[in-house]
Amino acid sequence: MVADKQNLNKQTACRDKPKNIVNGLDGQTGTGVIIRKAAELTGVKPVTLRAWERRYHLITPERNAKGHRLYSPAQIETIREICRWLERGVSIGKVKGLLSGSGKVTAPAQSNDTLAAADDLLQALADLNSRRAENIVNRICREYPPNIAIRQCFLPVIDALGQWKRQQGSVAAALLQFLLISRLSAMIRSENKSASIPCLAISLDPPGSLAAWLWLVSMAGQGLHITLLDGVEHISGLIDHARLQTYEHLAVFANRVPTKKQQQDIIKLSRLFDADHFHASTVIKTLCGAELKG
């Protein structure tokens, strides 16, 4: 988990795209882009865009004749501005004051501040209150882009649990793992419904690695239809596997040092894909370095 924290911190929650979004792009209509395209342009998932509209009234897109939301170029830029405030540690509930220029909200001087919900989640985990903890996890995942939710809530909570007494921390961490993996797997399945680019993801960690799931969900929403092979020990069988060529992308995760044999096999696998179609976690990149094609 610690090894990949720096990698997550470098990722931005909103992708910078050209501002001219209404010329020949898929998902375009005469007056704007539909919610799926807005999500692709900004990195903010449709469920989050809806929450920002319904609960916080941050954006009110027009509707077409069928009732579908249409986001204008100005609204796309507003979404990016919201993400920039979130990156600086402003909670979603306080962003509207900054967008309106009211001056009622003071942005924090430093970025990556922990969300206040992290303390609420820790308390729910300590109490073994699974329903409350689940509600908090679901709300954070709904109201924040994945990378912000991970970096400013879930990673700080995991770090805090690691400092608790072993007995108490172990029980709370087990509950968090159950809740997070349930939610993250649901998010990936949801993204897979509209994704068309096949991606095979391999985790070399023991089955149920929370670090692997957090890394994987950060890749979702990029048009990748993700298939996860969890807890793989021997990956050499994939090198000559006939079905491997049906996947356009390959992602390999490890949060601990792979064996020499695994490192050799990872390098061989990376050379079967174009450089920008092979994805590796920080540990793998550090160990294999320039030998990786991706």
Describe the structure.
- The chain has 294 residues and is of the alpha/beta class.
- It has 13 helices and 6 strands.
- Helix 9 runs parallel beside helix 10.
- The chain is globular.
Key traits:
alpha/beta; Multidrug-efflux Transporter Regulator, Chain: A, Domain 2; Methyltransferase, Methionine Synthase (B12-binding Domains), Chain A, domain 1; Rossmann fold; 4-stranded parallel sheet; two-stranded antiparallel sheet; 9% strand; globular
- Structural class call reads alpha/beta
How is the biggest beta sheet arranged?
A: 4 strands, parallel
One letter per element, helices H and strands E, the order comes to HHHEEHHHHHHEHEHEHEH
- What's the CATH class label of the largest domain? Alpha Beta
Query: How many structural domains can be distinguished in the coordinates?
Result: 3
- Principal-axis shape: globular
Using the CA coordinates, give the radius of gyration: 20 Å
Please, what is the oligomeric state? single chain
Distance between the termini: 22 Å
| CATH architecture identity of the largest domain | 3-Layer(aba) Sandwich
In round numbers, the mean pLDDT is 86
From the 3D structure, determine the CATH topology of the largest domain: Rossmann fold
Helix content: 40-55%
Protein name: Putative transcriptional regulator
Organism: Desulfobacter postgatei 2ac9
Domain HTH merR-type: 35-101
Keywords: DNA-binding, Transcription, Transcription regulation
Summarize the structure.
The protein is an alpha/beta fold. It is built from 13 helices and six strands. It has three domains: 9-99, Multidrug-efflux Transporter Regulator, Chain: A, Domain 2, CATH 1.10.1660.10; 117-186, Methyltransferase, Methionine Synthase (B12-binding Domains), Chain A, domain 1 (Orthogonal Bundle), CATH 1.10.1240; 195-291, 3-Layer(aba) Sandwich (Rossmann fold).
